[in-house]
Amino acid sequence: MGAPPDAGPRTRGAGAPQRDEARIVGVDALEDPAELEGLALRIFGDGDRPPGWFARKLRREGVDPALSVVALRPGSEPRDPNGWLGYVLVGTPPSLHPAARTSGTGVVPWARGRGLASRLLDAAAQRCRDAGLRRLQLLARAELVPFYRERGFASLRATVTALGFGEATHPRLVAAPPWRSPRAAERERVAWLPEAWAGTEAHARHGCVTTEDDAALTAWISREGSAWLVQRLLAPPELSLLAAADALRRCLPAGAPVLLPLLDADDPPTRALLEAGWAAAQRGALLERTLAP
Ligand SMILES: CC(C)(COP(=O)(O)OP(=O)(O)OC[C@H]1O[C@@H](n2cnc3c(N)ncnc32)[C@H](O)[C@@H]1OP(=O)(O)O)[C@@H](O)C(=O)NCCC(=O)NCCS
Questions:
Q1: Which of 10, 73, 130, 195 has its CA 20 to 30 A from that of 215?
Q2: Which atom of ligand 1 is nearest to the CA of 141?
Q3: For ligand 1, is residue 40 a contact (CB within 6 Å)?
Q4: What is the pTM of this model?
């Protein structure tokens, strides 16, 4: 039996299971977690996604199938994609240990509003707790922060992803620099997970080593479709975030979107960056639920 047609966000379909009817199992009961790509598209929509995006996401975010959970339509088998109603994917990047971080929470539109996401979050948290993890983190869009707060997550910090555009007619990209610790005279101004960089394919990895006001800065940048994602930026503390970000723009192709992910939205340098014309592409928060042993 195929899933009923999607009825739009947050509608309660007549064929949706009543509360507690859906069965929740580990993603390790599926043949291959990458098969959940079809479910992800039903939940989040097609968007502008390059081929292989889902398997890449699982790899970069260190998704652990044994900690991730999927909800099944009553009576369906874990391996039947038609029975999948929603999921919580959980990643365990070593740099976050003993915290885990979710890599996506979603329910098909017609089954929303019946507590399924809440049950999935509880089930994932239970698996993390049983595995000895202490905290479950997630990144949420601003409008969903109240939803997660009501489900036991506390906000650690407000986040914003800044968007600017490249300015170079002759881009000055170099081979990606080796990953290294910041030097004494450097601060990490943009920091995504080191595991995300390690999981980025070699052909998508680039670097930018440049100077601004005679101060050296180094960036690790990946190509994501038409955009350039600055995964890490090291710059001297005396250089403002705005000066460093604008120097990067001058390295990157004219007109191409440049993203600085997950900046601390309440940090004055971030506010200065946004006041100077970088856009807030996405606002949200990093939240965390403590897992009592
Ligand atoms: C957010 C989502 C996972 C909730 O799933 P669900 O099974 O309907 O969740 P529950 O039934 O446990 O809770 C429902 C609550 O979700 C909240 N909610 C859902 N979508 C929301 C939105 N866009 N904005 C704000 N709150 C929202 C509401 O508080 C709702 O409460 P209500 O039933 O009183 O209206 C689901 O709407 C979804 O998959 N959305 C699209 C994907 C997404 O945005 N995922 C989260 C980011 S990773």
A1: 195
A2: 47
A3: no
A4: 0.91
